[in-house]
Amino acid sequence: MQVAVAGLGTIGRTLARRLADGVPGLTLSGVAARDEEKARGWLDEEGIEVPIVALDDLPDHADLAVECAPAAVLEQICRPMLNAGKQVMVLSCGALLPRPDLVDLAKQNGGRIMVPTGGLLGLDAVAAAAEGTIHSVQMTTRKPPSGLAGAPHLVKNNISVEGLNAPKLVFSGTARAAAVGFPANVNVAAALALAGIGPDRTMIDIYADPTKTRNCHTIEVEADSARFTLSIENVPSENPKTGRIVALSVIATLRKLTAPLRVGT
């Protein structure tokens, strides 16, 4: 399978390195980057020999494109691939919530959108519970203040997270609203919503917590089949807004596509 990486930030670089080193059944066939000169310099430094391609040309180079870019360019990555009946793995899944037409486009052309587990856990259990009846899903996220700084919700409401000496609740509401207010921070909430009962019934509280050095998420699910609580503490990557486990989740998901043994839903 030919795989292209769209975006060479922290996650995209990790993914490109791992694919270039070799993942059975997968080949890194190209990358897309906003700053082509910078991208070429990094690729040369890493000894990775692949073309840098425009977003519109991704279908000519790949069977699957992994979106590792800002949410603002999601459509520019997805539409060419889905129009060609190909696959896209979306990390900025919060940007999918207001764009159900992309799912329709995938269905119409035989393409597919995949959302990896990312910085969350237990989506298998949530998806299984959704085959029955889920009564409620509550998520609580606690991040170091630096991981939330600059989020649109904080800017719009003039909420400061500087100089905190105690946890501060900065948002309480639906996953849909959280995806708008924190587009770079809580894609996990969107993934949870897509796996379960949707973005308008999935609730989330977000804390800026100076006592935390990791991105912490707790999920409580009440369903007719089970009641469960899931907690994870993710080590931040070079980009404090995302955890190291996100890139590893993408690689694990990619491995499943061609592996002779697949574990998990």
Summing up helix and strand content along with how strands pair, one would put the structural category as: alpha/beta
Radius of gyration: 18 Å
Q: Find the count of extended strands (DSSP E, 2+ residues).
A: 10
Largest sheet: 5 strands, parallel
Uncertain runs are none
Q: How are the strands ordered across the major sheet?
A: 2-1-3-4-5
Number of domains: 2
Principal-axis shape: globular
Count up the helices.
10
* Average residue-wise pLDDT: 94
CATH fold descriptor of the largest domain: Rossmann fold
Determine the N-to-C terminus distance: 21 Å
Pattern of helices and strands: EHEHHEHEHEHEHEHHEEEH
CATH structural class of the largest domain: Alpha Beta
The CATH superfamily of the largest domain is NAD(P)-binding Rossmann-like Domain
- How helix-rich are the residues, as a percent range? 25-40%
Judging by the overall fold, what is the CATH architecture of the largest domain?
3-Layer(aba) Sandwich
